[in-house]
Amino acid sequence: MTRPMAGPAQSRGYHMARRKLVYEGKAKILYEGPEPGTLVQYFKDDATAFNAEKKAVIDGKGVLNNRLSEFFMTGLAAIGIPTHFIRRLNMREQLIRQVEIVPLEVIVRNFAAGSMAKRLGMEEGTALPRPIVEFSYKDDALGDPLVPEEYVIAFGWASQQDMDDIVSLALRVNDWMSGVMFGVGIKLVDFKIEVGRVYENDFSRLILADEISPDSCRLWDIETGQKLDKDVFRRDLGNLTDAYTEVAKRLGVLPSNVTHTPTKPTLIN
User: Fold this and answer.
1) How far does Cα 133 stand from its chain's mean position?
2) Structural contact between residues 264 and 3, judged by C-beta atoms closer than 8 angstroms
3) What is the distance between the alpha carbons of residues 193 and 67, in angstroms, rounded to a whole number?
4) What is d(CA 98, CA 101) in angstroms, rounded to the nearest whole number?
5) Which residues have C-beta within 8 Å of that of residue 129, sequence separation ≥ 6?
6) Which residues contact 241 (CB under 8 A, 6 or more apart)?
7) Which is nearest to 61 in space by CA: 73, 48, 72?
8) pLDDT in tens, the chain (269 residues)
9) Which fold has domain 100-221?
10) What's the CA gap between 208 and 188, in Å, rounded?
11) CA-CA distance, 11 to 100, in Å (whole number)?
């Protein structure tokens, strides 16, 4: 079931009354956590594309992204990658560590797709000679422009050591994610992550933050090439919740007998 896009207060419902709002983004809301240094991350059903020019509310999307992000964050923590995830609280919320976000989207590409394919005139799905890590500056008003590492260091968004650590972390995430997805018949085409800084005594370290879900990855069925990510919404290729449900079922996050009744999203101008 889909419904018109709600205003911020309406979409938060009872959550606004019982918690202090810290930040509201396009797909998530952050509330003050129960303990110092923690936040509650709430996953909305809102879907956006093309820098929020295309919008819809798709019932069930937030629940799926919450469960899938929990799965990925927990798996990555198990192999020693530090994350902000503490535990899932309910169907739409998880408890996370509060971090100072590095103002970059870190993009890892295994195959040409999306903006890279368009930018370089490459056929979508072309295998890259090695994983490529790109950076975009987090600014919606500017359209999150790609920036070279020199810009990041020159403008003080991160140090050279930070950048080395971020690239290493991103490639470790890619190795694990690629293997997990391949094991369930899914090709990890590309994905983006965010990194946050936490302070412990007089030292700081970088950890994985935000989320990992089909909202932030390109996922294609290995056999058919069917898209199982937000491109389904971007390109009007079918039902987004069905695609995300398929990913969750293959990973064992949801029982295999779970189904979803297809409905067409209501787009909001």
Assistant:
1) 16
2) no
3) 17
4) 9
5) none
6) 58, 59, 60, 61, 64, 260
7) 48
8) 344 344 444 444 434 446 899 999 999 999 999 999 999 999 999 999 887 789 999 999 999 999 999 999 999 999 999 999 999 999 999 999 999 999 999 999 999 999 999 999 999 999 999 999 999 999 999 999 999 999 999 999 999 999 999 999 999 999 999 999 999 999 999 999 999 999 988 899 999 999 999 999 999 999 999 999 999 999 999 999 999 999 999 999 987 655 554 444 444 44
9) D-amino Acid Aminotransferase; Chain A, domain 1 (3.30.470)
10) 18
11) 26
Say which residue the tokens 């530090």 belong to: 82
> Hey, what amino acid is at 103?
P
For every residue of 3-14, DSSP letters joined together read EPPPPHHHHHTH
Tell me the domain boundaries of the chain.
2-99+240-250, 100-221
Q: Which token pair is 26?
A: 């396009």
Amino acid code (one letter) for 242: D
**Superfamily of domain covering 2-99+240-250:** Phosphorylase Kinase; domain 1 (3.30.200.20)
Give the total residue count for the chain.
269
> E strand or H helix at 61, and its extent?
helix 61-78
List pLDDT tens digits, range 53-68.
Answer: 899 999 999 999 999 9
Who's near 239: CB < 8 A, 6+ residues apart? Answer: 232, 260, 262, 263, 264
- Look at the block and give the residue holding tokens 């490529």: 132
Q: CA–CA separation, 43 vs 26, rounded Å?
A: 10
Q: Are 207 and 196 in contact (CB under 8 A)?
A: yes
Q: Enter the DSSP assignment of 140.
A: G
Residue 45 exposed, middle or buried by CB count within 10 Å (0-12, 13-18, 19+): buried
- Helices then strands, counting H and E runs in the chain, come out as 8, 14
